[in-house]
Specification:
single chain, alpha/beta, Rossmann fold, two-stranded antiparallel ribbon, 7 strands
Length: 176
């Protein structure tokens, strides 16, 4: 089942209600989250309400300014780990392993603009989050599929970046 919550009118209590409805209570793994693309930690956050309720987790942000704000805001939370890095398909599993993320953690929030699919594909090769909240582009209708090709940037001036080429194809009701 898919359910969307609008970024135009975020409601932490509604998101928290959806999370609690779909996740059983009990083990410590049921109260661990991973937030990839955590931004400043509170604005448009899918995980701040969980953190405030005592959940443990890992918040990852690559933007220097946003990470500085995130680190300052989360200073008093000793049950969250912070990582400042760019998440890629090549480093996601080792990043989670290095931070001792449980293999069967409860909630994944994924918002990294562009190659979420490839990161998620790699993450799911070793981890099984019970509930996933992934960013969508509301300008692409559900009847379309977007495929991105990913490869290292060859530009000498760039730090290693990823290049993505996207195309949109009409879905015809067949499995892809």
């Amino acid at each position: 089942m898919f359910r969307t919550l609008s970024d135009l009118n975020p409601d932490e209590s509604e998101l928290l209600s959806v999370i609690e409805q779909h996740l059983p209570n009990g083990s410590s793994e049921n109260s661990y989250y991973v937030d990839i693309g955590a931004s400043d930690g509170t604005s448009w956050s899918n995980t701040y309400a969980l953190l405030s309720k005592g959940w443990s987790g890992l918040a990852v942000e690559c933007d220097t300014e946003k990470f500085a704000i995130l680190a300052a805001r989360y200073l008093d939370f000793d049950h969250v780990q912070l990582a400042k890095c760019k998440v890629t398909p090549d480093n996601i599993v080792s990043l989670l392993m290095a931070n001792s993320v449980p293999r069967d953690f409860a909630f994944l929030s994924l918002d990294i603009d562009g190659y979420d699919y490839f990161v998620l594909e790699q993450l799911l090769s070793s981890y099984r989050p019970r509930l996933i909240c992934a960013e969508i582009n509301e300008k692409i209708p559900p009847s379309h599929q977007v495929h991105s090709e990913i490869r290292p940037c060859t530009c000498v001036e760039c730090e290693p970046l990823l290049w993505a080429k996207s195309c949109s194809t009409e879905l015809s009701g067949r499995e892809t």
